[in-house]
Amino acid sequence: MIPLANLLDDAALKGKITRWIDAILERQHPNGWLGDKEDPHEGSGETSLDPWPLFVVFKALAQWHEATGDARILPAMSRAMGRIDALLDEKSLQYWAKMRWPELALSVLWLYDRTGEEHLPDLARKAQKQGYDWRAHFADFQFTQKQTQWTLENHVVNQAMALKETAVAFRLGGDETRRRSEAELALKWMRVLDEWHGQANGLFSGDESLAGRSPSQGSELCSVVEYAFSLEILSATFGEARFGDRLERIVFNALPATFKPDMWAHQYVQQANQVVCKECEPRVYTNNYADANIFGLEPNFGCCTANMHQGWPKFAAHLWARAEDGLAALAYAPCEVETVIEGQRVRVEVETEYPFRDEVSISVWAENLLEFALYLRVPAWCREARFKVDDAETALEAGFHRVHRVWSGQTHLQLFLSVDVEWQQRPNGAVALQRGPLVFALPVAKEWRHLRGEEPHADWEVHPRAAWNYALKSENQDLNLDFSPLSDCPFSPQGAPLHLQVRGRRAPDWELLDNAAAPPPNPLHSQEPSETLTLIPYGCTNLRVTEFPVAQL
């Protein structure tokens, strides 16, 4: 809520936050503990001496300080971390706290950057030593199949949060060589998850537990926003463009697809091939309940209802980062940045319809003559990238392009990112189509059926009202791409700004199995007539087919 309220400058939301921040800080116990119980020894089992809830609170307090400069935050966090430090000497990290220790270390290092308290890095190292060994986890990855029993080690959200461990480890001590090696390690961990559980939308599956590469398996909304946040931390820490590439793929596809277009209802899990959303059994999920992929207020479990709000606000807050000698664009979206460089005010404005268009316009204002650099991320998927300033064009390669110059007054820059539609090979011979950060899917005509609750806080089933079981012709076909003006709600079936026309055939033998639509093996034989199918961006769909079998010509 904190980045949302401050980015929107929303007085009502700020008022709610202020009341809660005041309540938290006013009730801090003399020993530093935050919470309703002065003695965290109360409770039993996993709740005794459990600091995990404070890991989350610290991240919120840090954001509040960044937004407001509230002078109470730093001393309150310092006292609370001192209490946690003492507690860890009595009982080591357990359960959620053990798996998610990088979240604590992240806030500890944030505080250290602002106070310089010498004991803080030692607290982060203590958490690292007591925490789960994610390096061993990914070095000898044991979860190469769909998991049938939930454990902390195979829980999907834990994997998404763990990816920031490498950034934390580097911050605890490392030179430029260590920076590069830790960045490559994080990319390796991502490749491991892609290899065994990767989805076409950039996520990895997990309907609680890691669930394999089938597009029928679910991906939990909490893992969407936690993966995005880890990528934001990795991108800002390492200055590696590939983290931004994956970040955009997730937030422009998986994030909007898991909401109703008006965002009044969400899913607990989404599917890449999702042709019906209803309460039913049997399900292909490993652990989730019958309502896991309906759209509702808090289907299956309430964690995503709270956690979903990380997605867009934190993405907006991480579009730009400070570089040692200037500013860096980590991802692209319309935004304004105001900051101070060498004592002078600088403003950057980005105007773009990216990712639905290929051009990004950037305007830079500096009060006086001021020398600094802009780092512009060039995605790896670009066929060709060009940069234009002062009527001079430069060809760019993937990575961060440094624009170093003396700025004065207003300067306009243009970034052109040429991109082709590509065929993505998927398991079982299936294919998916993508263009830059956008994945395409066949939207399925649908009917929303009200289940319970009063609108807008209601639960909904979504049922197909048209055929969905299509196979695509081989890759050797012409693809037609149509651009439409951006609407007020581009991430919606009606407002989709891109339409991709492909040729395909009905596949009548492709039927639901356990209420899911995994593609049948290739080659698929169909006697149905060839049709033109119109695909739209994945994030614009509610019901969809993303992975298709290939029809024999």
Notable features of this structure?
alpha+beta, Immunoglobulin-like, 20 strands, single chain, globular, 8-stranded mixed β-sheet, 8-stranded antiparallel β-sheet, 553 residues, 15 helices
Largest sheet: 8 strands, mixed
The count of β-strands is 20
The proportion of strand residues reads 15-25%
User: What oligomeric state best describes the polypeptide chains here?
Assistant: single chain
Characterize this entry briefly:
The protein has helices spanning 2-8, 11-26, 52-68, 73-90, 95-99, 101-115, 120-130, 134-139, 156-162, 165-171, 176-197, 221-238, 241-257, 303-307, 311-317; strands at 218-220, 269-271, 320-323, 326-329, 335-341, 344-352, 359-378, 384-389, 392-396, 399-418, 421-425, 431-435, 438-443, 446-452, 459-464, 470-472, 480-483, 498-506, 530-537, 544-545.
Explain the overall architecture.
The protein is an alpha+beta fold. Among the domains are: 1-132; 322-418, Immunoglobulin-like (Sandwich); 426-545, no CATH class. Helices cover 32% and strands 25% of the residues. The protein has 15 helices and 20 strands. It has helices at residues 2-8, 11-26, 52-68, 73-90, 95-99, 101-115, 120-130, 134-139, 156-162, 165-171, 176-197, 221-238, 241-257, 303-307, 311-317, and strands at residues 218-220, 269-271, 320-323, 326-329, 335-341, 344-352, 359-378, 384-389, 392-396, 399-418, 421-425, 431-435, 438-443, 446-452, 459-464, 470-472, 480-483, 498-506, 530-537, 544-545. The strands form 4 sheets. Strands 3, 4, 5, 6, 7, 8, 9 and 10 form an 8-stranded mixed sheet that branches. Strands 11, 12, 13, 16, 17, 18, 19 and 20 form an 8-stranded antiparallel sheet that branches. The mean pLDDT is 94.
